[in-house]
Structures are given as structure tokens and as C-alpha cells.
Amino acid sequence: MPRYIKKNISLIKSIRFALEGIGHAFYAQRNIKIQSIAFICVIFLSIFFKISTIEWAILLSVSGLVICLEMINTALELVVDLSTKEKKMRAKLCKDTAAGAVLLASLLASVCGGLIFYERFANLISGGL
Q1: What domains, with CATH codes, occur in the chain?
Q2: Is 90 exceeded by the pLDDT of residue 3?
Q3: How far apart are CA 73 and CA 81, in angstroms?
Q4: Radius of gyration from C-alpha coordinates of the chain
Q5: Is the pLDDT of residue 26 over 70?
Q6: Which one is predicted more confidently, 106 or 128?
Q7: Contacts of 24 by beta carbon, 8 Å cutoff, 6+ apart
Q8: Known catalytic residues?
Q9: What is the pLDDT of residues 57-104, one digit of tens each?
Q10: Quick count: other Cβ atoms within 10 Å of Cβ 1?
Q11: CA 94 to mean position of chain CA atoms
């Protein structure tokens, strides 16, 4: 088999493995399901309010950051669980720190969403759009 074909097969396998990881995260993790529902709501609100391209970029970036960090958190928890069956303080700190990163990113995403949608919701409630 020519060398360039092997590289393409390897790339296809890499993509398949990555998709399996994404599938596992969405299937097994409750928080990522919740975050995905919030992300879908943000998309619908963005379409409804006809936000600008810059606002789209901001919301997609922070929402994607939250989901990516949740997946990293999931992977880290699996590695920590593989490495020790005992309860160890360092293992707890590792998991808690990763969860804290997800929480901070979620708060950042919420602030960005609030800044972008607040005035639009206020105008909608007061009778305009």
C-alpha cells in the first residue's frame, strides 16, 4: 500500500477515535447533556434575536469552551480513576480543579450571554424587538 494512503487511513482512524470520545462524553456525562441543551437554546436565541457576527463568534467560542473543558474534565476523571482505587487527596484535588475550570468557563459563558441578550430581552418584554 502506498505511503500516502496509510496516512489517510490513520487520519480516518484518528477522527473515528475522536468521534467515539465525543460520543462517550455525550452518552455518559449528565453535565455535558445539560450544557449541550443550554448551547442549543443559545443558538435558537441567537437566530431569533438576529445577533451580529461578532456576537455569534463570542457565544460560539465560550459555549464551545465549556463543552471542551467538560470533555477534558471527563477524560481527567477517567485517568485519575484508572490510576488509583483509593481515595487520595491529590486525586480529589485534580478532579476538583478540573471541575472548577468548567465552572469558571460556564460562568464566563453566562456573563457573555447576559451581556449580549439582556437588552434584547428587555426590549422584547417592554413590547419592542
Answers
A1: 31-125 (1.10.287.3610)
A2: no
A3: 12
A4: 19
A5: yes
A6: 106
A7: 74
A8: 70
A9: 999 999 999 999 999 999 999 999 998 888 889 999 999 999 999 999
A10: 6
A11: 19
